[in-house]
């Protein structure tokens, strides 16, 4: 174990006492038994918030530890026991406390608590006792996905690689190397596909039952309420899908086709297309600005030092055990930012392999960390931190752009131009993927019948992929590989959480456009919006950041024109 891993283990340590319900039960009982008047509510809320933070921190640390050790049965078992023995009791206690709060006569929430109060009221109406135990089952089913993918290996020639390491090979400028890596990844994915099919076969009836228990006609309706989507409708999402197909897919095809022409490719094959790292028009190797996680930390530190002193200091504080960046066996392959509310500390998990894409992803995840830091410092109540999902990706995606002018210590002028171009291209090619992911889930949870099979899922994904990625040529290839594209992290782990990425990318482009004219003002608006946490509505949060909450066709057309101009 490296020194960094040792520090991470210390940060993620959870005592045995913190994993038992009897540790928390007396304090929940005291809150429930307290005489509660309108005047006493603020102090009572502070006590509940502090307790909620302790429980939340325990489960966040256990969950993250499990993701770092997908091959350790003891670690997995400890997390699962918490989900089975503590989480259901917490949910029941939280519901009882919410009902107690809502019953207080003459109480009017303060302006900075009014939205949270309304959300608590809506969540209480959605609560069903039957969904408490079913929720434990749901979490266990989702965790199976994490274990399976975290232990996935790729056999490439005589080597056994992690998925991120194999994906790095797939970005080679040598087309033969790319194809070999793509085929190896595809073989690994297809070997795992039946087990992931089985996980989804278990998840679907569980999710439908969660909705039925809540007296709702579909899991989409259930998630719409759970995610508090009050500012837009499913019809707005469908309009977004059509707008992307009409305004973005042609531009994406133009970009990808232009790269293929520059490289003399007869067609864009699956191994020629990675939306996270498009091919270089000059046929050059992908930028590889670092070798180790420690080097990446130093790169980021210098960038933040140039961007803003406050943010730089926040990142510096994370370098003592709140970053786990290296890719290794037994570690979940996704990247994310976790949050420990008692300490107001974010934690970033990644799987870096030395690419410029890793640099971008680190800025993305640390943007989330800044959101946690700033909202946590400004908002004492734990429920007022972070923000609704429609805003929560803006801090991360905007940071990808705001750091662009602070990387001259990493790249020379030509390399920085390449990095910047890939960032702009990446927004364009991401939007069709986001629309496809969202459209798939609308179909799966609101249109497909209860007798839907994984073969039906495959067929629908193929239909959507041909719609949103018509520029990738699969002639002569096994389309069973293409059909399993739905076996993606968010579909299993965070259903219906994806269109938010598209909304926030559009907003991030708007923030960057403002920063081109007023860098200091754009940065201050960015930080001010993060400090608001969850105390104002989604449209108000967007306005605080200097942009509009819009994802209609006209707005998308305007932003695509701006990006095309910047790329030119």
Give a brief rundown of this model:
The protein is mainly alpha-helical and 568 residues long. The chain has 24 helices and five strands. α5 packs across α6, α14 (356-378) packs across α16 (394-402) and α17 (413-447) packs across α18.
Give the secondary structure arrangement, pairings included.
Blueprint: H1 3-11, H2 21-33, H3 41-68, H4 73-85, H5 87-102, H6 114-126, H7 130-150, E1 154-156, E2 159-161, H8 163-169, H9 175-213, H10 219-226, H11 234-263, H12 293-307, H13 309-318, E3 323-326, E4 336-340, E5 345-352, H14 356-378, H15 389-392, H16 394-402, H17 413-447, H18 454-468, H19 479-483, H20 489-493, H21 499-517, H22 519-531, H23 538-545, H24 553-567
Parallel strand pairs: 3-5
Antiparallel strand pairs: 1-2, 4-5
Helix pairs in contact: 2-3, 2-5, 3-4, 5-6, 5-7, 7-9, 8-9, 9-10, 11-17, 11-24, 12-13, 14-16, 16-21, 17-18, 17-21, 17-24, 21-22, 21-24, 22-23
Name of the CATH class of the largest domain: Mainly Alpha
Domain module tally: 3
Proportion in β-strands: under 5%
CATH topology term of the largest domain: Neurolysin, domain 3
Work out the number of β strands: 5
If strands are numbered along the chain, what order do they take across the biggest sheet? 3-5-4
Task: Give the H and E element order.
Answer: HHHHHHHEEHHHHHHEEEHHHHHHHHHHH
**Annotated CATH architecture of the largest domain:** Orthogonal Bundle
Helix content: 55-70%
Distance between the termini: 47 Å
What can you tell me about this protein's structure?
By secondary structure, this protein is mainly alpha-helical. It has three domains: 3-142, no CATH class; 149-285 and 419-493, Neurolysin, domain 3; 293-417 and 500-543, Orthogonal Bundle (Neurolysin, domain 3), CATH 1.10.1370.40. The protein has 24 helices and five strands. A three-stranded mixed β-sheet has the order 3-5-4, sandwiched between helices. A hairpin with a 2-residue loop joins strand 1 (154-156) and strand 2. The longest helix is centred in the middle third of the chain and has 39 residues, at 175-213. The radius of gyration is 23 Å and the shape is globular. The N and C termini lie far apart (47 Å). The mean pLDDT is 96. One of its GO terms (biological process) is peptide metabolic process. Residues 171-559 form the Peptidase M3A/M3B catalytic domain. Belongs to the peptidase M3 family. This is Oligoendopeptidase F.
């Amino acid at each position: 174990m490296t020194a960094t891993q040792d520090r991470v283990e210390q940060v993620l340590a959870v005592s045995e006492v913190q994993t038992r319900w009897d540790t928390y039960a007396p304090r929940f009982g005291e809150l429930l038994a307290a005489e509660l008047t309108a005047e006493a509510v603020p102090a009572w809320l502070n006590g509940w918030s502090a307790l909620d933070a302790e429980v939340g921190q325990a489960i966040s640390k256990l969950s993250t530890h499990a993701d770092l050790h997908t091959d350790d049965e003891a670690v997995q078992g400890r997390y699962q026991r918490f989900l089975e023995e503590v989480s259901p009791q917490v949910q029941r206690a939280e519901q009882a406390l919410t009902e107690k709060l809502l019953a207080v006569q003459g109480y009017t929430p303060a302006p900075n608590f009014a939205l949270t109060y309304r959300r608590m009221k809506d969540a209480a109406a959605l609560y069903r006792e039957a969904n408490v135990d079913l929720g434990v089952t749901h979490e266990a089913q989702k965790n199976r996905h994490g274990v399976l993918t975290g232990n996935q290996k790729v056999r490439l020639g005589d080597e056994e690689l992690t998925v991120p390491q194999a994906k790095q090979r797939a970005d080679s400028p040598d087309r033969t190397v790319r194809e070999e890596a793509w085929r190896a990844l595809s073989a690994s994915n297809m070997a795992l596909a039946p087990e992931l099919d089985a996980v989804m076969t278990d998840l679907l009836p569980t999710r439908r039952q969660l909705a039925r228990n809540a007296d709702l006609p579909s899991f989409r309706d259930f998630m719409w309420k759970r995610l508090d989507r009050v500012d837009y409708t499913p019809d707005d999402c469908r309009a977004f899908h059509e707008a992307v197909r009409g305004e973005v897919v042609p531009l994406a095809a133009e970009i990808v086709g232009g790269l293929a022409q520059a490289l003399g490719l007869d067609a864009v094959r699956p191994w020629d297309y990675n939306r996270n790292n498009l091919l270089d028009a000059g046929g050059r190797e992908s930028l590889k600005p670092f070798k180790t996680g420690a080097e990446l930390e130093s790169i980021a530190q210098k960038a933040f030092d140039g961007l803003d002193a406050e943010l730089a200091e926040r990142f510096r504080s994370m370098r003592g055990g709140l970053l786990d960046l290296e890719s290794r066996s037994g570690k979940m392959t996704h990247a994310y930012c976790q949050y420990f509310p008692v300490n107001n500390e974010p934690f970033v998990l990644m799987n870096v392999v030395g690419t410029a894409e890793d640099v971008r992803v680190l800025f993305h995840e640390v943007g989330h960390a800044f959101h946690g830091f700033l909202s946590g410092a400004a908002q004492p109540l734990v429920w007022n931190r972070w923000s609704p999902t429609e805003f929560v990706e803006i801090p991360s995606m905007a940071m990808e752009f705001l750091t662009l002018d602070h990387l001259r210590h990493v790249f020379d002028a030509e390399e920085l131009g390449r990095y910047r171009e890939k960032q702009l291209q990446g927004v364009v090619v991401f939007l069709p993927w986001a629309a496809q992911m969202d459209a798939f889930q609308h179909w799966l949870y609101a249109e497909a019948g209860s007798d839907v099979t994984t073969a039906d899922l495959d067929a629908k994904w193929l239909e959507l992929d041909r719609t949103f990625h018509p520029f990738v040529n699969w002639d002569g290839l096994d389309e069973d590989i293409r059909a399993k594209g739905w076996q993606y992290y968010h579909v299993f782990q965070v259903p219906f959480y994806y269109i938010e990425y598209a909304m926030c990318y559009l907003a991030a482009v708007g923030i960057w456009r403002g920063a081109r004219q007023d860098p200091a003002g754009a940065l201050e608006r960015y930080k001010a919006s993060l400090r608001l946490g969850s105390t104002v509505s989604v449209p108000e949060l967007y306005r605080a950041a200097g942009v509009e909450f819009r994802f209609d066709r006209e707005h998308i057309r305007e932003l695509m024109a701006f990006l095309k101009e910047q790329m030119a």
